[in-house]
Amino acid sequence: MVSRLPSKARPQLSPDLVVEAAARVLEREGIERLTMRAVAAELNVQAPALYWHFPSKDALQVALYDHLMADLTFTLDGRDWREDIYRMAQQLRRHLLARRDVAKLLPHGFFVGPNIMAQGEMILAILMRAGLSPRDAAYAMSTGFSYVVSWAVGEAELRARQATGHDGNDDLAKAMLATGAYPHFAQVMSAFEVGGDVDGQFAFGLNCLIAGFEQLIPKR
């Protein structure tokens, strides 16, 4: 049932209008308040009207993710597949961090959309040209994508805590290290004080993944 407001006050719903409304709700309210009811309110209709276009909230979130990825353009060097994969991962990370809660949108499992498929096609082409089998290329893409998305979620939360000027985890860690019971952790913390950083941690993990992918290429 749609709203009883005059018809001129109600938009003629389409998938694009629903997704654009969902994007506004996500940016303004965050993922926790992105509900079918909230999107319907943004459009001045009742929630059941949305189900004509999206059978579930998961379906809407996948469409929304694909919509928000439309302006991600990979800039590649083209000379070394490892460098290209590294660049793509870094560009994806920056893109996810530039938009509120985008990395949290995706449900578990396989998902498709025109922008997602086009970007995945580029990644698969690079990996398969490098020598990975179709199966290994698919696994490598999935593993790398999961790493970047999970990292972006964690990094966004870290930035939010740092923005408050106080992180309770830091205080607890310092108190525990002061007991002397964790000497190896103490050495790690000292190392971070003289050069550890979030960018370096991300690059380290990414380079480890790429080195692992390289081992999947048959030796000629």
Give your account of this protein's structure.
The chain is mainly α. It folds into two domains: 7-68, Homeodomain-like (Arc Repressor Mutant, subunit A, Orthogonal Bundle), CATH 1.10.10.60; 81-214, Tetracycline Repressor, domain 2 (Orthogonal Bundle). It is 62% helix and 0% strand. The protein has nine helices and no strands. It has helices spanning 15-29, 36-43, 57-68, 81-97, 114-130, 134-163, 168-177, 183-193, 198-214. α4 (81-97) packs parallel to α6 (134-163) and α4 packs antiparallel against α9. Residues 1-9 have low confidence and may be disordered.
Give the percentage of residues in beta strands: under 5%
Overall 3D shape: flat
Low-confidence stretches: 1-9
Number of domains: 2
CATH homology superfamily of the largest domain = Tetracycline Repressor, domain 2
Looking at the overall shape, the CATH architecture of the largest domain is Orthogonal Bundle
Please summarize what this structure is.
The protein is mainly alpha-helical. 62% of the residues lie in helices and 0% in strands.
Name the features.
9 helices, mainly alpha, flat, disordered N terminus, Tetracycline Repressor, domain 2, 220 residues, Arc Repressor Mutant, subunit A
Question: Helices and strands in order, then pairings?
Answer:
Elements: H1 15-29, H2 36-43, H3 57-68, H4 81-97, H5 114-130, H6 134-163, H7 168-177, H8 183-193, H9 198-214
